[in-house]
């Protein structure tokens, strides 16, 4: 995803949708401070994701989709799920590059890449 769209929902940035910088792997969970671990996202997605790992955020979004009562809400969630799956794939392939230490990456690997 480029720096003109939110990496989670895909919305284009404008004066109504302002970009923020998200640490894909939260620093509180061993995420690196490098650009390999950062992406632009809208404030709404950054607030919704909080300090979740991308994999946990994806599970959260899928649960929201299962509970969605309106078709428009479900469509928006499907779009967000698709973009978040791309983020998860990037994190899985990036390996230690998005983590502060090798130990943090090994914890992630044991927990999420079974």
TrEMBL record:
InterPro entries: HNH_5, HNH_nuc, NA-targeting_endonuclease. Residues 6-54 form the HNH endonuclease domain. Pfam families: HNH_5. PANTHER family: SLL1193 PROTEIN (PTHR33877), TYPE IV METHYL-DIRECTED RESTRICTION ENZYME ECOKMCRA (PTHR33877:SF1). This is HNH endonuclease 5 domain-containing protein.
